[in-house]
């Protein structure tokens, strides 16, 4: 019985599963790197260049792994998002002087440095908490500097899972896309109603008026033979009476 055992085991030991989810979360965050990072990078063979990801903020994995790592990524983003206000508060007491200069030394020994340390302490603690999970300094820097400001006003739901139609080759495992929201969003647009030219509509109305004016003339031409036929009948009747 699995009492008080949360999550999927995924057929691995606890340490193996923890390392796998850590690597998957780190890989998702590192897809936000700039394309310049991959210049001059080669794979293990030393010949094949490493190309930047086609879509940033997206990884493809199995459906069950995506569901497990999603909660981990959401928790890391929440910690980084809550540290933004502390960084903004510490910016008021920060100096623009270069390090080890006379001005910087004066600020370092004054009250401004103490206020800056007190204001920034929660943000430093948040970075240490995230690093304790991800174990990658570059991923922590990208998370706090690029991803967290993007979701500053969003209380949750930073990622989405999209199940893929085709299974994975080899074991036919169900695949899914795990990505950050807001970057690769799908938008639906409705088609515009076609606008007809005014010249065509005017010509159509004029043709309708012409047909309506000519219609009575056709009726008169139809009635004329009927009148002639009635006159001819009267003439034949009179001729028969005279013969009698």
How much of the polypeptide forms β-strand, as a percent range?
5-15%
Order of helices and strands: HEHHHHHEEH
Mean pLDDT, as a whole number? 85
Overall number of domains: 2
Helical residue percent? 55-70%
CATH architecture of the largest domain: Alpha-Beta Complex
Structural class: mainly alpha
Strand order of the largest sheet: 1-3-2
- Poorly predicted spans: 218-224
* CATH superfamily descriptor of the largest domain: Ribosomal protein L17
Supply Rg: 41 Å
Number of helical stretches of at least 4 residues: 7
Within the CATH hierarchy, at the fold level, what is the topology of the largest domain? 50s Ribosomal Protein L17, Chain: A
User: Whole-Å distance between the termini?
Assistant: 126 Å
The CATH C-level name of the largest domain is: Alpha Beta
Q: Name the overall outline.
A: extended
Report the sheet with the most strands, covering strand number, pairing sense and barrel closure: 3 strands, antiparallel
Quick structural overview:
By secondary structure, this protein is mainly α.
In terms of topology, how is this protein built?
Elements: H1 14-30, E1 58-62, H2 63-82, H3 84-91, H4 102-109, H5 111-134, H6 137-150, E2 159-163, E3 175-180, H7 198-243
Antiparallel strand pairs: 1-3, 2-3
Helix pairs in contact: 1-2, 1-6, 2-5, 2-6, 3-5, 5-6
Describe the structure.
The chain has 244 residues and is mainly alpha-helical. The protein folds into two domains: 14-180, 50s Ribosomal Protein L17, Chain: A (Alpha-Beta Complex), CATH 3.90.1030; 206-244. It has helices at 14-30, 63-82, 84-91, 102-109, 111-134, 137-150, 198-243; strands at residues 58-62, 159-163, 175-180. Helix 2 packs antiparallel against helix 5, helix 3 (84-91) packs antiparallel against helix 5 and helix 5 crosses helix 6. The protein is extended, with a radius of gyration of 41 Å. The N and C termini lie far apart (126 Å). Residues 218-224 have low confidence and may be disordered.
